[in-house]
Amino acid sequence: MTAELARYDAMCRAIDEAYQIDEVKDIRDKALALEVYSRQAKNIEAERRACEIRLRAERKAGELRRQEEKSKGAAAPSVPPQGGRRPPTNDERRKELGISKKQDERWQKLAAVPQEDFEAALAEPGVPTASGIIAKLAEKRSKPMDSAALWLWGRMKDFERNGILADDPDRVWAEMADHMRADMRRLVPRVCEWLNQLEASNAEQGNIGGREAARNSVCRV
User: Fold this and answer.
1) In angstroms, how far is the first alpha carbon of the chain from the final one?
2) What is the pTM of this model?
3) Per the database entry, which stretches of residues form a coiled coil (predicted)?
4) Over the stretch 53-82, which tens digit does the pLDDT of each residue have?
5) Separation between Cα atoms, residue 161 and residue 165, nearest integer Å
């Protein structure tokens, strides 16, 4: 088991450090062979690890392919570099790599999945699949975001972006007019109470950080 984990970590590092698609595809092909062998041997844990390696490699290959397309699109497609040849078409590039159009498109879709969502999908029970990960992203994007959630997130980010959290509260208070201070005295306690309820709700959902925040929550005016 220790040797398998070491090999898994080494392959993950190799994928992260790779900058050539051929290199990543070679890792992907080896992981696929291990995946098939593990499935035949009914070694579920080994199959899952090999599957994760394959998906990571496919996602990295998709990232590199997207970079290729972006750099090719930035240049004039009809004018080859001086002394060089024109960039290969998509079909020519796929033939060079030994992949199909379907694989190329799927890998680039995997690359479009945010890292956080990708890692969460790999952590779920069972053996992950590329199609399942891509489908979850499509479902997530199709669901409209609640306007109140977006607004609150934006205001919290504004505190950080505008440097408010690093400013001196006494200085900011001193800069306010009397009617502004009156509104602050009225609204701050209500806002603090609402935020404390948000923290408590976060804790009830099993978020460790939420529990800690709820225990330490102190909102004074």
Assistant:
1) 56
2) 0.59
3) 34-61
4) 999 999 999 999 999 988 876 554 555 555
5) 9
